[in-house]
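Posting this for the archive.
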Amino acid sequence: MGVPPGTQPRPGRRERLAERLAPEGWEPCGHWSVLAYFKRPGSVTAGPGAEIDSPPEPGRRRYFLGARGALAIGVSLVVAVAAGLWSFPRLLEGSGGAAGWAGSAVGAVAGALVVTGVFRGAARLAAARRDRARD
């Protein structure tokens, strides 16, 4: 029993991307969350002949966020703001005076520094990998 004509589902984003990359020898090899991974198995056996004649220029943007990635970041920010707004009045009610405020300030600064350091480290790692791939 087949599917009636005209009711075939449209290919999803991954399928369309795989179709677009197939002529160059790329094939999907997995996905995680919003990321899709592709490989060129023919390049292993072809050796130097598998080199792409005219690779595309790198994009102008440094970071690429799709709609789902931006949505995930937005939801995370909303949750963080809601948690802060929920906890702030409780801090005012039961603060231990200056010591409580000082502890909160130190914790906030330390948390911001850790998050900033993680993001900077990830950006440097990505830049180093990108530079190594170009060489």
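Residues 10 and 85 are 43 Å apart (CA to CA). The chain is about 60% helix and 10% strand.
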